[in-house]
Structure formats: C-alpha cells, structure tokens
Amino acid sequence: MAPKGPEAESPSPTNGSVRKRTEALSPSSPRKYRSLAEIMRTAKPSPPVTGEYYSDFRCEQCRSGDRDEEMLLCDSCDKGYHIFCLRPIVVRVPSGPWLCPSCAGERTFQRFPLMQTKIVGFFRIQRCSITAEEEKCRPSQDTRKQRRRSMPLIMHKRRRRILPFNPTEDPVRRIEQMGSLATALTTLQMEFSNELTYMPGKAPRSANQAILEKGGMQVLPREDKETLELCRAMYKRGECPPLLVVYDSLEGFTVQADGHLKDMTLIAEYTGDVDYLLNRQHDDCDSIMTLLSATNPSDSLVVCPDKCGNIARFINGINNHNQESKKKQNIKCVRYDVDGECRALLVACRDISCGERLYYDYNGCEQEYPTQHFI
C-alpha cells in the first residue's frame, strides 16, 4: 500500500478545482514624493484674476451684468444673481459662503412637533401665579371710578389706547399657532425670547436710556403700559395672539392673522439681543431694528434677532417705492420710553381680517432700509 504523503492528507475540493497556497507579496520599494520646493519650481504661474474675469458674468434671472456690486456668485456653480432678483430677496451681501437656488435645492425644514409638552418647554410657559399677574396688570374698579370723578370738566381729544390681543379660545388651535412659530425659530436656529436680552460683549442694559434719544422719545402712557404687561403675562401662560407663521417661496417666512385683529391691537414687542449700532453696521442680518437713535452715534442701539427673538422677527415689510405695496401696510412700529428704557412695539394700524398677512414700514423712522425691490 502506497504511503500517504502530505498531498494525500489534504482533502480534495468538491468542485474539482486545485487549491493553491497564496504566495506572500515581495516587499516593494517605498514611494518617493517630490518636495514642495521642487513642485513650486516646475509649476506654471496662474494668470492673475482681474476685473475683466468677472465682466462676462450676468444675472441668471434678469440677464443683466449691471450693478455687479450687488451680484452674488454661487460658491458651487459660479453663476451670478442680483440680490434683489432672488426670491426671497437677499437684503445684504452675505459674509459667508452662499449657494444659488439651483445648488441649494428646495428649502426643507422640519416642523416642530405639535405636542403640548414640547410647546410648553420651548416657550417656557408658566402655569403658576396667573391670577396674581392678571390682578397686577388689570386696574381695579375703584381706581377707574376715582379717575372718572377726578377728571376736569374740559373736553379733550380722546387718545387712542393700545388694545390687548384676544387669544384663540381653542387650545388645540393655539398649539398649532405656537408650533408654527417654533418651526420658524428652530429652522433659523433661534431660541424664543419675548424680552430684550443683554449679552456679554454687547451693549449692557445700562446703555438703554431713552433720555439719549435724539429729539426725545414719547413716554408710554400708564394705561398702555398695563396693556403691555397684560399681554406679556398672557404669553407666559401660553395665550398667544391669533397669528400663524407660514413659509412663502417668494417672501420666506411670513406672518398671517389667524383671527380678527382690531385696530390698535398690540401684536408683539420687537425682541432680541441689544447691541450698539456701530458693532452691526456690516452685519448681514436682515432683521435689525433701531431701538435708540441717539444724538451721539456711538450711543445708538439696535435689536438683533439672530440668536433669539419672537414672532416680530418674521413680519415682512412693504415696498416704500410702490403705492400698491404701501396699501398692504396694516402694522406700525412705534418706539416708546417705558420706565426710562427704549422699547419697540408693533401695533395694528387698522382692522386685520383672518388670513391677511401682516406688513409694516421698515423705514418708518429712518429711510435706510433697501425696500425698493420688495414685492
């Protein structure tokens, strides 16, 4: 009987193929790289970029190459667009990278969950000491009677008082309204704040002095101050004005009435971080609001709702150069002296129907905002 060799010990493959041992790779010589100095010696210099390089760029929307200082070039495809030809309009040239609508694609955003616990946490709704807040803000009956008896017998022109908003009675609908605002805020990576905020490195609260206003600032009457405090107390307990934040492909996020709003109804206070105007002159935020226009420009303050704010951030402006657009205005912005500090309030200037979008004049105080291209 023939002896069994090593080849006989290994079982043969069932498919009839011959199994061979893989040979080890022979060590290869290390790869050599050229030094940077050698590459620079042999590289050909690129032609300098001059103004002629951009002379052939035209706006993809209007096909014009004029006003190149207001034209944006996409960081992906190098196509050009005028900032006023884009929809929504880009008010200022962005300081960072920018993508055109084709490269950026259709804007998508995640809707805020319509859950009561989520809404309560996002807006920091308080459920305690509601009655005490109401009683503090609402004048007593005895005070009203005493005020009526002490009035002199002289006829005066009746002053128009600011009215508190009437929240929607349906709690489910209120959650939908607040959820629409939460969606817009989270899309812009903002937090909700219904107050002016003073952050380190920006203007301190001590800088907000209404006495510094050039020409003086009107003082908010006591009755209107009570209305302001009442509305703030209602917001704290989750009773918001009947408003919805919707997204429009031409205007971006915008606000529309979700119920009837009477003339002189308080819509919102313009809130956000308070900063010096000199620090924000080259800021590309498109929602900066003047808070204090001081005699000394270094004392002027603005409200910047780029990190935090409320629904006032999403109310759009009218085109000051178009009569038809001016007819859309139904909100006015008024700055008041409230306990010695400047506050900016948005108030209805006429009756607003349900479903009507809200607009006000961005240049109500200063003719500096470029609204000539607003739709």
TrEMBL record:
GO BP: methylation; regulation of cell cycle; regulation of DNA replication
Protein's UniProt keywords contain Zinc: yes
EC number(s) given by UniProt: 2.1.1.369
Ranges of residues in domain SET: 69-363
Alphabetized SUPFAM superfamilies for the sequence: FYVE/PHD zinc finger, SET domain
Annotated ranges, domain PHD-type: 56-106
Gene Ontology MF terms: histone H3K27 monomethyltransferase activity; zinc ion binding
Signal sequence, renumbered to the chain: none
UniProt name for this protein: [histone H3]-lysine(27) N-methyltransferase
Source organism (scientific name): Elaeis guineensis var. tenera
Gene name tied to this protein: LOC105052055
